[in-house]
Design brief:
687 residues; 28 helices; globular
Length: 687
Amino acid sequence: MKRLRTVTSVIFVLFMFPYLSLLAEEGMWMINSAKPTVRGYSRSVVSIDFMGTGCFVSDDGLIITNHHVAFADISSLSEKNNNLLENGFWADKRSDEIPVPGRKVQLLKETIDVTAEVDSLLASGRVKPGMMMMRSLGTILEERYREKTGLKASLCSVWSGIKYYISLYEEYSDVRLVAAPPSCIGAFGGDVDNWAWPQHKGDFALYRVYTAPDGSPADYSCDNIPLKSPAKFKISTRGYKEGDAVTVIGYPGSTSRYIPSAKVNYLTEGELPLVSRVRGRQMSIISDWMAKDPDIRLRYADRYFNLSNFQELAVGQMQCNRRYQVMEERLKEEKVFQEWIDADPQRQAKWGSLLNDIDTKIKAVWDSQLDIMLYRECIARGTRLQTIASRIMTLDGEVSQEDLEGLCRVCQLCYETEDLRVEKDIFRSNLEFFLDNLSPERMGAYQKEIKGRFGNNYDEMCSYLWDGSWMTDPERIKVLLDSPAEVEAHLEEYVSDPLVKFFKDIRLAEYSSAYLRLQGKPTIHDLCQEYIRAIYQYRADTGIRQYPDANSTMRVSFARVKGYSREDGLDGRYYTTLAGLLAKHNPQDHDFCLTPDWKEVAQTAAPGMKINFLTDSDITGGNSGSPVLNKRGELIGLVFDSVKESLSCNYMYVPDYNRSVNVDIRYVVWILRNYGKMDTVLAEMGL
């Protein structure tokens, strides 16, 4: 198997060819380092609130992205009697397009190297090194460039402060949903097929961006007009074959390819197993309820989708890190790196003990750091009522109108979106996991009291806490929302609520202070930042090419259409077809059930029509919806997933197994024409 060092020695041919690299390669390269032709492609690519990528496919602001990127919007626009997730949405007339509240789209205009300006600010003393340095730098430089250009400005650092860049964006806030296939198309295979191959997803959706009549960004208005796209991608109907070169442009969120082996070990053996177990338990509970109740399916669809995505990712990263021996590979690199340090007295004085210091401190705080993760997963993120309890905890003595209004807002949001039956089951699961895994010395007095009273009978413990709480009593909630003064009149009762007492007894400040005390100064974060700077210098000195970790800035990667076999004897074909989709149909399984109308239409197509295909492009979260371009710069597909065998990509690129899954644009067009009846929109797209 080829390893990381072998790949990083390949000549970076981006600068040798006007369109694409002729070799697939590791690297999410910053767009400002690319050739002019590739940089020109960026005028057609947008970020969708830095959670996904899209691209223009018409002159009138029409954007294509993934169904799962638009999933939260489709879910929020759905109603009981008009479930867009289940039924789909098609607006062939612009008057039928639906405004999406809060959704924004960012179009990159320019990326500027501001390293010299940062150095000047640090040298002047106006900004001082430390925890608040990036925030201070961002406040000054983003405001400076915003005033200078009138554009949204975003500062980022790469290689832990070796370089700093300002990205300038035109930001649009009138975004409307144009098309979204039903989940039986856009999310076919559901959680089972997530991070898998083969897949058969029509994972796409269409938005349109609107502007004020003068073409400037504007909030929603019925007087707004479609954006005049600065550029667009032509849709290719030529197809592709294995070995074809492709380019992918998008906004990958984050990678950690320059962290030390000790950090890889902690994540693989500590944090990732914990996260995957907690979220897996929560998924199982929600899945069972969704199968029983269509209303719960609609209300929890977005939450379940996010849980599933991250839980599968955590499991995949953990397994792939072990399978590809990522820590062992990093240790081999660090051995050579340490030899380079020891070969020079100045480097030895500066970095001689760096690796040992990091390893020692990570071992010292291992349990304490897991306690913090346990709190985040089981309580802060995993139990929605904790948000309400935290509001109550801040009330002391006189209660202001602002306090009451804030409490009511939080309560209303929670009870409008959650089902208390589901939440009780999730709380029961989290309660057990939290108390069984928390370090004994971190357990609070009230937690010890109920643990001593109920032992491991978590059913009774949950009933005592949950059923005895005003927060789970619909009548008390209604009184609170109708008369906020109820809280002030009965504040002592609200504060002494068993659930509030349980949440209040979680001593997060003590968790954090223990973590900081055990690691001392410099912190693990400081040492890891210094490690990245040292690695940068080592690679620069030894001629190993390098690219910065992903950080939600626009990146370009070069790849080939390429199949793979995840295990010996399994089919390694690089595409899937409609025949495979129809073969997966199972009317007893919601994730694999084709609705009668869609099945009827699908059966009219050629069985060999390609649906999804593989490339070996280097991508990560945030690349969802990224355009896949052929050598002519034409759109042949959209990135929507990676195979599970490539999920170590956050830490190391493994060329033999790194594969992204893409939806064929011809399949998208076929659905728009034959199922969505979007003839007007297709004509607008040049089809």
